[in-house]
Amino acid sequence: MKIREIPFLALGGVIAQDDIDATNKVISAAAKGGNFFPMPEENDFQNAFAGHEGAENAIAVNSCGTALDCCMMALEIKEGDEVITTPLTFVCSAGTAIGQGAKVVFADIDETTMNLNPVKVREKITNWTKAIIAVHFTGLACNIDGFDKIAAETGIPVIYDAAHAVGTKYQGSPIGGRGKATCYSFQSNKNMTCLGEGGAVTTNDPEFGEKVRQLKTFGYVYGGPSLRVASIGFNYRMTKPQYAVGLTQLAKIDAIIKVRQQRMVQLNNLLADVSEVILPAGHGPGHGSHLYVLRLNTDKVAFTTEEFRKRLLEKYKVGTAKHYPPVWSWEAFADLGYNGEGCPLAAKACAQVISMPIFPGTREEDVEYIAWAVKETLADLKRG
Ligand SMILES: Cc1ncc(COP(=O)(O)O)c(C=O)c1O
Fold it and tell me: For the whole model, what pTM was predicted?
């Protein structure tokens, strides 16, 4: 095949004229009236998002990191508490608990799905465990029934990090109403974006939702005869143009995810007979299809993922990424004494993962090229 350039991040196809029109409308109105408040778009977006994710309540905030922080604060996580999570995630799924003074306890993953394994979580529960944060990694739903059982038996609340998982389904149903709460990201390279940043907490627990709502806006309680400040809160709101774009994004999110799904299934099919790689599980309907994370079968090859990624980029111009190094390996976490004890499957997976460049704008012929380049790179490296 003729060499072509496939960068890892190519986000075309997410922002379009409808989003530009929605932004312009809000900005033009503000130019005439000089104000970005009130913002009816906020409630409209929250209602639409809750509906899309199958939840009774959605509280939009300015990032998924903020959404997780709000959940930790609403659960009153503090020094002396333990929060169990996966080491195969973005730093903030763990950092949010440390931010409240708690200790993070890493539990191992399921080898096939790469999601946090409820069986391994049970082994790490102590009298100090106050929450579990499970991540729907790449957009593939966790074993929610397994976590429900733990919550029912122990009373420990489960917060889902769904930064990768707008549109993900579990056993055919949306995930937003499961557990204590679910936290989403609308950051620039996620399935949908609110002009670069944004997030939401969904929950079916109205009291918990109200706590998050208060944390998001200075502790305000609206709706009574006069405004009350019922708790210490912050300002974690998005802006009016962001809510407006959230609505246009939501109107087309299912179509965007469908294209991602098709391309990821296509790549799985094209690589099905390649024994040097482990294909990602669960792609197809119900997968949020945020990331396509291939694993190099390091038991079968004599080179590393770094060597593979370097050759793929330098010779075939295909960019990749790594989702993720284990959280414990980042300097700030290592300095606090975190390590991979008890998580051998996560340690192995983190040494094998390679994220392939698939986005809504990726064409079928690009996927064919990526599959060809992967096979050629493996053959090159095997020849030495
Ligand atoms: C698993 C996971 N959780 C949380 C976040 C944080 O999201 P945000 O950038 O919206 O704060 C990310 C961001 O990439 C993520 O991948």
Answer: 0.98
